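#structure-requests
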Amino acid sequence: MAVYGSREAHNNKEILGHKLIISGRTAGTITGVTDIDEFDNNTIDMNTSLGRLIIKGKDLKVKGLNLETGEADIEGNIDSLQYTSKQNSDSILKRLFK
């Protein structure tokens, strides 16, 4: 399953493109990631250039995260993906370094 999306440049501001590739419901690569708010074995909650993305499943892991390129690699048993337009302003990384 693959879901693709992107935003055009608006008012001369470049917005990160967003792409989501899921392989066999057990691994995935997400681009356009701006932050990961929370994650545990059952949920990964991240902000993307197209809004908040919540991934639910079992044995979920963030295997790699590069915020400079906006890419995250995940693995586990993926049950659902949900987009919302609200982005959480306090990420887990920001809370850790307060």
